[in-house]
Amino acid sequence: MPVRRKSRAPQEKTPMESPQQPVRAMGVAAAALAVVRSPKNFYAQMPKSGGFAEPLVFLAVMGAAAGLVRAVLSVAGGHLGVGLVAAAASVILTPILVAVFGFVGAAVLFAMWKLMGSQESYETAYRCAAYSAAIAPINAVLSAIPYLGAAVGVLWGAFLMIEASVETHKLRLETARLVFGGLAAVLVAASLSAQFAARTLMSRRAVAMQAESAQMAAAAAQMQQMQAQMLALQQAQAQAAAARSGAAPSAPPAGLSAQQQAQFQQMQQAMQAAAQRIEAQRKAMAQPAAPPPAGGN
Prior knowledge:
Largest sheet: none
Order of helices and strands: HHHHHHHHH
Number of domains: 2
């Protein structure tokens, strides 16, 4: 009797094994987790063809998620207006930007892989670059850490490109490490230098703003002093007018310092003395002249 063989149940293919199955919401999440958890297995099983729509959708979703993370961090940091604008820009502009710069970045990687000896097509290079965006939301969180966040993001991206070079493009590990490791070292150095320069410039601007604030405070104090002196002069003129009319002199205005009060009293005394001299001269001029004495012969 012929032996019947047991038929195996057909295994369901994952989104990575079925290039014709489009990526939807859950597919994007599953692909992102696969890249983060095991990039070696992901790039080994990733379809090398199947169109640009699937990786483009993945790239757009990851870019929008990274933009929203940055917007939330901006709002949490107290920049409410900036955070809302960033969130709106992420939803509207990110799909357009990633559609353009994703193809440009893939072209650069395609040229690099060709120089390294890869035989794969531009579509394969685009897929490798697009799915590496799975770490973009995490890098957005790490970017809140000065210096360390940017360095970790660059090194992580270089690690993914090394895995894609070995597993997808079948290149030597030593070559991939040399190329992408050296490029990552240059980018990390440039990023740290740029951040240090930016923070130095911000600290200098803060010092300059403090100096300007101190100068503005000193100018405001001088203005107040000049206003007080003008008020004292007006009061002194009023005192002089009162002295000429015979009224009692008024007290110094309130709010003056001891030095300003002394200056006020000095000016008041000087004005009173001047008024007395003017009054004496007026009285002398008003008196009739005495007749000359009669001469005798």
